Amino acid sequence: MKQGELFDDRPSWQREAKEKKRDSAQDLHRVARDLQRHILDFCRDHVGLEFHMADLVDYVSSRHHAAPSSTDRVLRKMRSDGLVKYTVVNRSKSLYRIDGVTG
Question: Which of 28, 30, 51, 103 is close enough to 55 for a disulfide, judged by CB 3.0 to 4.6 Å?
């Protein structure tokens, strides 16, 4: 127990809500980490190649169950973190090209 938790005088529903929030944050981190691993694998195999976002989503979803929008959200985050470099070749066709992988 952390200091102060022994004498926590908050109602039990508030303590339980805090625990659920902590668990939820841990779950989100775990899912993002798993998605990132699969996205990196895909990107390493496709450096210099064009692909449609549906190709990446299919690849990731065959290895990990997640919402399709999670894949492109994690990919964008990886780009902003400098792990993956890609070019949007044609936004309306969801066509991308992997320019490099540093992660």
Answer: 51
